[in-house]
Fold:
Amino acid sequence: MHTHPSLGIVAACEAEAALIHRRLSPSHQIVSPVGTLWQGRACGQDIALLRCGMGVTRALPAVTWLVQHFDVWGVISVGFAGALQPHLATGDAVLVTQVRVARPDHEPTPIRPLEVIEPDSALTHLSAVAANHAALTCHTGVLLSSSDLISQAVDKQHLGQRSGALAVDMESYSIGRVAAAQHLPFTVLRTIFDTSHENLAVPAATWMTSDGVLQPRRVLDYCVRHPYALLHLLRLWHKTHIAGKCLEHWLHHFLTLLSQQRP
Structure:
């Protein structure tokens, strides 16, 4: 167990959490009803890595549990996002200036103050420098958090046009809200998974456990019933590889720079 304050890193799914987990040494695991946590060191930083599962109903209690039970000095939302603008490609880095709640069409357009989270300026600047060191294509702007998975291209394009946001995820607003309530520095490191013109044609979210672990049996059962899905699975695997490789390089440079500033 670590005695120094740790950097809390929160990821929804196994593919995202594994990018940090495999770098932790040593790795102490704690399994709880709200998620799975690993403690260890990476790039000179003490890390508390939490895999919480997808969506606000998983992220909110999990991050609340994290900050209540562990000594963390800051919190980072890490993972993939869906593009809302046509110029964003798989693997691109989103440098987030604000995290906002994605609201339904029927609600009025003015943004309420409580629906906006502004990431910590120092951590966000460090993430931008790290993305440059990792030679990533970067886009700076707003990230939306949606309570539902937005899988259809027409819905992503409409949301992008209506909001002007760059990308959408499902957890960052909840993570940031808990961090803000605890007066903890917060930022986001997200790479693009699906582009704005692509449909996510298979129900990948239903293949996971509540805390974000892919279940091969569920995938196999689906493919037996829907043989066409094999092609889509190959595309998903390719996107996971690209988005994950870019995010892993970004994280490595971010944690390295962080260790130089915060030994």
